[in-house]
Amino acid sequence: MKNIVILVSGRGSNMQAILEAQLPLKVAAVISNKAAAPALEIARQHGVATFTLSHRDYLDRESFDRAMAEIIDGHHADLVVLAGFMRILSPWFVEHYRNRLINIHPSLLPAFTGLDPHARALAEGVKIHGCTVHFVTNELDRGPIVAQAAVPVYPDDDEAALAARVLEQEHRIYPAALRWFAEDRLTIAGNGSVLLKNQEKPGGVLPVPDLVG
Ligand code: GRF
């Protein structure tokens, strides 16, 4: 069975969805860069080893990342899973875990990379919004897309309502993407697109778990 290590900074609802999805993989450890992250307690309740690292104890970004990598590699992680980890990773870290580092972003990438995607989606008046699971590259919130789910945007939505609608989909597609990884079904093609082996519908199109008009 493959091992994953999850990196968090806060609430931990995606981490919790992954822990509760009964995936055929082992969550070997959870690492937070914030001691107060509620995610840590949730991980402990699930019997997962937790670690907290503060950037203040390290000279620079790369030293912090190397300390995280020691824990991650010590747990023989096949995949590093970012689940609300709110720190930019060094090029060294991204290269060390090339094709083994995955993230979820609450927008339909490549739209609305970076902070406040829901507020910006509302400000643009988009009618469809959503979330994306992708492998991580050195470009912020860019990289081979594994799965996406879309939700409608309603005229009376505020940021909280839209975020909640998207979060519900995050909790579906992140465990689904990790299941595909656990089953060895994901390949990153030469052109950077992700192929899913043995999918029900042929044609190289990843299934969209939920597309609402
Ligand atoms: C999620 O919306 C995720 O997409 C983004 O940060 C948020 C983390 O929420 N990267 P949680 O900690 O998983 O509840």
Topology:
Elements: E1 2-8, H1 13-20, E2 25-32, H2 38-45, E3 49-52, H3 61-74, E4 79-82, H4 91-96, E5 101-105, H5 117-124, E6 128-135, E7 145-152, H6 159-182, E8 186-188, E9 194-196
Parallel strand pairs: 1-2, 1-4, 2-3, 4-5
Antiparallel strand pairs: 5-6, 6-7, 8-9
Helix pairs in contact: 1-6
Bound molecules: 5-O-phosphono-beta-D-ribofuranosylamine.
Quick gist of this model?
With 213 residues, the protein is α/β, with parallel strands linked by helices. It folds into two domains: 1-97, Rossmann fold, CATH 3.40.50; 104-213, Rossmann fold.
Q: What features would you highlight for this structure?
A:
alpha/beta, Rossmann fold, seven-stranded mixed sheet, 23% strand
Strand content: 15-25%
CATH topology of the largest domain: Rossmann fold
Helical coverage, percent range: 25-40%
By helix and strand content, what is the structural category?
Answer: alpha/beta
* Rounded average pLDDT: 94
Superfamily at the CATH H level of the largest domain?
A: Formyl transferase, N-terminal domain
Structure description:
The model has no long low-confidence stretch (mean pLDDT 94). The N and C termini lie far apart (38 Å). With 213 residues, the protein is of the alpha/beta class. Strands 3-2-1-4-5-6-7 form a 7-stranded mixed β-sheet, with helices on both faces. A two-stranded antiparallel sheet has the order 8-9. It has 6 helices and 9 strands, in the order E-H-E-H-E-H-E-H-E-H-E-E-H-E-E. It folds into 2 domains: 1-97, Formyl transferase, N-terminal domain (Rossmann fold), CATH 3.40.50.170; 104-213, Formyl transferase, N-terminal domain (Rossmann fold, 3-Layer(aba) Sandwich), CATH 3.40.50. It binds 5-O-phosphono-beta-D-ribofuranosylamine (GRF). 5-O-phosphono-beta-D-ribofuranosylamine binds at residues 10-15, 83-84, 104-106, 167, 170.
